[in-house]
Amino acid sequence: MIPFLLILVPLIGGLISFLLKEDRAAKSWSLLIALITLAISLSGIYFFNNADALTLDWPWMPALGTSFNLHMDGMSSMLTLLTAIGLPVIFVAIYKNNYAKPGNFYAGMLLTQAGMMGVFVAADALVFYFFWELALIPAYFLASNWGGEKRVAATFKFFVYTFVGSLLMLIGIFYLYFQTPGNHSFSIDAFYHLHLKTSQQYFFFWLFFIAFAIKMPIFPFHTWQPDAYEQASTGVTMLLSALMVKMGVYATIRWLVPVFPQATNYFSMLIIILSVIGMLYTSLIAIRQDDVKRVIAYSSIAHIGLMCAAIFAQKQAGWNGVMVQMFNHGIVVLGLWIVADAIEQQIGTRKLSEMGGMAQKAPELALLFVIMALANVALPLTNSFIGEFLMFNGLFQYNIVIAIFALITIILTAVYTLNTVQKIFYGELVSTTNNAIDAGLNVRLILWVLVIVIFFFGIYPEPMIHLTNDTVNALLAK
Amino acid sequence: MNAIIFSVIGGVVMMFTGIITQQKKAIRNVAIIALIILLLANIFDTYGILSIHIGTHGMLNFQKFGLYFNTLAYAATLLFILISGADVTQIGEGKHAAEFFALIFFSLSGIAIITSYNSLLLLFLGIEIMSIPLYILTGGDKRNLKSNEASLKYFLMGSFSTGILLMGIALMYGAHGGFEISAMKPSAVSNEYGILDPLGLVLVFIAIAFKVSAAPFHFWTPDVYDGSPSVFTSFMATIIKAAGFIAFIRLFDNKYVELGLSWRIILPLVIIATLLVGNITAIFQQSVKRMMAYSSIAQAGFMLFAVFAENDMAKEGILIYTVAYSVATIGIFAVLEKMEDISLAGYNGLAKKHPLLAATNTIFLLSLTGIPLTAGFFAKYYMLLSVIKYGGSTVTWLVIVAVIFAAISAYYYFRVIQAMYFKTGNPEVRSYNKGFCFMLVILAAITILIGIFPTIILNWFYF
């Protein structure tokens, strides 16, 4: 029942939100729904963590071998928790921003959440595909309707990329469906027990991987991402970069590696090299960017690239690291976007060249951003450290040369992150930042909450590893 | 038999209604009642209740599949008249409302013959009975030059394809010595006449491909669909086109197995050509109506997969495709009918002024794109699944080409959504009433309902 509620509550809440015309009503309603979802998610981890509550299997189209089958294991719990935390954080952070037609905006956010929840809990390939596409539609409307001048074109590029990918995946799903024995089935267990020929694996592996690689995104499928992140309004960008990219990482772990084990082994070197090239390439680009949002966007590609590389290295430590990092990357990126948005709302620009000296005017925001930045660099004591450490560990076990190349990105990350901090907060005051003040109470409050999370999991990552360890063992054994 | 009889009676009744009254509302209501009676009569016939039997000497063969398709086609026509009936009565200075409805009924009786034919002669009759009323409907707006041109073009091209059809039938008769398709066994044809059978079949194929506007026999479609009054375009592009596919499926039902390899190559080429022409040309259209004409060619490409796969799943798929595609297209044309400016720019900013029109139109467009949770997804789903079931990994390339075109179709469908939601403008919309809004919501609800439970349609089929 828990996974169903996680989809149903934001879905109903979102549909009701369409009817809300008033700004305050829409904001408080959506925040309420997001908090209820968070409560359900936490209760699924701490109170109702038995198989009955976490599994649901309703008949849907029995003749076609598909059922509305939802199941939550550790990894699903962790990602639904991240999604459930993400939405209230975003809502509090953008509480003071004004959007035209607020009811529709918050409805779109909640519907996207419902779609993502569905992706994370689906245990049937057709249900999975359903939610995979459904999360995209409200996100498309959100990013097209609110944001920068070129948003419509940028978002459409994003949509077309993802749509092509998911259609290719659909073919793959159909094909696997006909490979299942007996009356054919779409269930994940049937897919796990397939005995595919090597040549089949080599081909259909790519149909799935391209869909996931576009979503993550992995070099060279990443070109939609910086434009889409830059042009969407920041609330939507947070949703896309902190939460939605995890769909790709999750799907790779859940639907790709266990289903195509031989193909994964065969292509792992190629994909790891692509990932590492992407990490280096995007980190170098990030150094040259002048727009805060683009810096964070490219930084996000680099971090996801590392996760992808660690997945395909297929080592226990690396997978543990991916699990931990999926959660922690979401938290850190949320923090970075919130600061970026707070700055833009105040001084009306995102250009680094037009900023400077804000620490004198907004000391608290400066402190918070420095902590976020250090977490982005994965300094020890911050939550990213343990995840990155484990992932590099996995990569080292796989191939030491590649690991060394990947390690260079740590330095590059430090360069562009600290450079950004320096350009915004230190140096001389300029005309734009002359009248800057500290961010609003809601922004500071939510950033402190994130800082607490960052340090908590930085010092004591055990709960996160414990939660997902069973999944790692089960999936790696396949 | 019920469907044929009642649809003809319906047509005759409508003609006399035009003599008795000139009141548009009354005429429309009579049409709706007659259509409901026809629908019920056909449903009863499907389950063998109150069905009328007339000896046809095996020329007609009533099977559940055909009868069930009638039900779907008549239900779609009912939705069409409920939502666009008022617009039908306005066409051609509003003097010929009853005649238009009569012609629609005659066309429906042609569909009833096509879905149940066993003799090739009846296929010919069915196609003609279905088409001739359409030539007149296309020219319904008789003071409009474009409408006249479309009508003439359709008639000339249609006659041409009829000639080809007759030639094909004649050749097949020569090879088999009879018209009954159930008795045709390609293996029984003596070598002397060996070439006649496949040649005849190809000619029949071309004629029907013309009716469903498959490339390269699609050239009439854009002009005719664009020129004829929008309401009739809506009728032609949905219900009539779907009936053409039933003709295909019945024709190949027992011939297909022995057709051999060449057929396996020709048909995919036709499919790809149709998808290519429809999708690529649709991208460049500025008029939404013309875009929908090309989109209907593209959708026909997808429906041809059912002819290619020719298994049970394909038959189920064509039923779902018919409903999904008809409902969405009827809805889009109903909205289009209310727009003063039917170019893309005319839709700019529709969401601000008429949110309901824009929202329902979006659902229909998403359905045509094939997004999950709409009927269109399951329509494409069944088509692709049936092809993979038929060919396994040997047809993967065909399926990949198809989904790439499906992705391209997102481009032009989403341009309408972008115009409605993300562009500013001042769209001029003709007045519409509550009933129209209600019907739009019903159509959208059907689209979403089938998008969640497609088996609703199929369960009746197996009942």
Structural class of chain B: mainly alpha
**Biggest sheet of chain B, open or closed, and with what strands and sense?**
none
Q: What is the overall shape of chain B?
A: globular
Query: Which percent bin holds the helix content of chain A?
Result: over 70%
What Rg of chain A is obtained from the alpha carbons, in whole angstroms?
A: 21 Å
Number of strands of chain B: 0
Biggest sheet statistics of chain A: 2 strands, antiparallel
Describe this structure in words.
Chain A: Its main location: membrane. Chain A: It is found in: Endomembrane system; Membrane. Chain A: It is a multi-pass membrane protein. The complex is a heterodimer of chains A (478) and B (463). Chain A has 478 residues and is an all-alpha fold. Chain A contains 21 helices and two strands. Chain A is globular, with a radius of gyration of 21 Å. Chain A folds into two domains: 259 residues, no CATH class; 211 residues, no CATH class. In chain A, strands 1-2 form a two-stranded antiparallel sheet. Chain B has 18 helices and no strands. Chain B has 463 residues and is mostly helical. In chain B, helix 3 runs antiparallel to helix 17, helix 6 packs across helix 8 and helix 7 packs antiparallel against helix 9. Chain B has a domain of 204 residues.
